[in-house]
Amino acid sequence: MSRIGRLPVEIPTGVKVDIEQSVVQGSTVQITGPNGTLTRTSHPDMGLQMQDDQIQVSRPSDQRQHKALHGLTRALINNMVIGVNQGFSKVLEIVGVGYRASLRGENLILQLGHSHAVEIVAPPGIKFEVEARARGDRQIAGAITVWGIDKQLVGQVAAEIRAWRPPEPYKGKGVRYRGEYVRRKAGKAGKLG
Fold first, then answer.
1. Which fold has domain 9-85?
2. pTM value?
3. Are residues 56 and 1 in contact, defined by beta-carbon separation less than 8 angstroms?
4. CATH 3.90.930.12: which residues of the chain?
5. For a pLDDT cut of 70, what percent of the chain falls above it?
6. Which of 18, 26, 163, 177 could join 30 via S-S bond, C-beta 3.0 to 4.6 A?
């Protein structure tokens, strides 16, 4: 049995769960909490039962696909519960001279060395925060926090922001995740000595 799938999903106080069973389309789970509401339809083969403030996911057989779906379904539902209760965030750091980030209303404005400023429109359910600070021996032009209740959407928006200027290996300039290791290269001068 799947080690992840067999664990029940604990429902904290203040979170409401509605499960609508359907044999053909799969069970629809709607989870409402202090931060908002998320809805997801599970695979038709996965069974969902609500008992004693817990959601239990079951599978019909030990086929390889059912084993994979078992853990996946449980993880997705658990992320929904955490999202509506606490939310998810990713922090991006901007490193480089002249690289900046600012907010214009709900949208994020990035100046990353392009001929124009890049405006990223906040999708519904996503909020941006910008802070400027120095860290250690290097000056960080800004830190961007992407916050939302949908874990997948938060990760996708953060990846799209990073894709505008990924960190380069010679000086380390660019947009990186907080804590990301950027492998550095010596360059031409380093090869000679």
1. Outer Surface Protein A; domain 3 (3.90.930)
2. 0.85
3. no
4. 9-85, 88-179
5. 91
6. 18
Token code pair at residue 75: 């993880």
Q: Which CATH superfamily does the domain covering 88-179 fall into?
A: Ribosomal protein L6 (3.90.930.12)
Inter-CA distances, 64 with 23, 26, 69, 72, Å: 21, 19, 9, 13
CB-based contact 121:109 (threshold 8 Å): no
- Cα distances (angstroms) measured from residue 192 to each of 43, 73, 168, 170, 171: 59, 55, 21, 16, 18
CA 178 – CA 44 distance, rounded (Å) = 38
Q: What is the pLDDT of residues 161-191, one digit of tens each?
A: 999 999 999 988 999 999 989 898 888 876 6
